[in-house]
Amino acid sequence: MKKLFGGINLTWKKVILFAIIIGILVGGLNSIPLFKDTSFTDSAIYFDVWILFGILIIMNSTSNIDSALKCFAFFLISQPLIYLVEVPFSYLGWQLFNYYKFWFYWTILCLPMGFFGYYMKKDKWWGIIFLIPMMFLLGIGVSTYLSHTIYSFPRHILSLIFSVLTMIIYPLAIFNNKFAKYGGLSLGIVLIIAFSLMTLFNKPVYETDVLCTGGTDKLIFDDTYTVYLKDKKYGEVSIKNYDSFDEAFFCVHALFKKSGKTELELTSPEGDKKEYNIKIARDTYQVEEKKE
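and the corresponding structure tokens:
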């Protein structure tokens, strides 16, 4: 473990080759529909894996400048390459690069992060100061992955485990100084507990409208109708009245609490029923009227 965090001869050739391999791998995984909304595509969206790469580069660099430039080059190569790999497989095509703006800002930040992060190698008690921002980002990741796992178990559980483990491993692997090592470990444990409790007390909900009057299907219903999900563990539904440009319309408003498949029933005051099959995901849904 110590060799990984400081014992690698990290040449520029290795940094560039590693950036190319990681960019192609992450872009490829993110292009496979089967892996959508799982741990295998989280690295294309969230920070935890990239924090690992950044720390490994910092700990195996030879100076502050070397660390800053190698971190910057690694992200400058790998991040655009992810989008380039995804272009042929996405309906957005080259428009995917509109999302790169967010990651470009973080790529620029790699320069100061790599420069100051190198001070962790000094193995002083104050070295923990430079690890704290990364620990907080990982804590946010723990909250995010736990939320996703609760909603769509067991999806994202590998990412959750990874974030928790790295928050414990980093201070132990980076520092020999007892204050920095055990102070960092204590901070990691506190953040894991705190962000987990925040998520458990504020469980994920996907709020959306699944059916609305009018439209191409020319649906007709109002707030005198009743609606319910046959399996209430997936959430709650109700009829909601909207006013838009002096025109009123009604929607079946849903608060989904977990992913899966169930049935939705819409009943008129006269007892006429419409039944729908509904498939719920983390931030999407599919609804289809059942045929007689």
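(Above: one complete record from the training split.) The longest helix spans residues 64-86.
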